[in-house]
């Protein structure tokens, strides 16, 4: 699971939309602070990822802690922007039998992208 997680995080770096989409099952749910109602359509998800990864093409994602669950894992991650600013968050990830993501919920404080910590 560590290898899967690390390869998936690498796909979030460098504007690799198609590579990232390959980690997701045909039927999935994706939630993050910008999409609290979720995305479950690959076409819509591709549009979102294209915009997001174009905005942050050089951010780097790293695994901090990984906790296995019955259906996948919980991940504590660190993302570092080109400016050197970093922020942390958690992902809930569930996989199907083919090791494709069926559920991905992303939790972090988005204000950390705009405001420096106290």
Q: Can you tell me about this structure?
A:
The chain is an alpha+beta fold. The protein has a single domain (2-109), classed as Nuclear Transport Factor 2, Chain: A, CATH 3.10.450. Helix content is 25%, strand content 42%. The protein has 3 helices and 6 strands; from the N terminus they run H-H-E-E-H-E-E-E-E. A 6-stranded mixed sheet has the order 2-1-6-5-4-3, with helices on one face. A hairpin with a 5-residue loop joins strand 5 (86-95) and strand 6. The model has no long low-confidence stretch (mean pLDDT 92).
Give the CATH level 1 class: Alpha Beta
Helix and strand run: HHEEHEEEE
Largest sheet, spatial ordering of strands: 2-1-6-5-4-3
Question: In whole angstroms, how far apart are the ends?
Answer: 35 Å
Cα-based radius of gyration, to the nearest Å:
14 Å
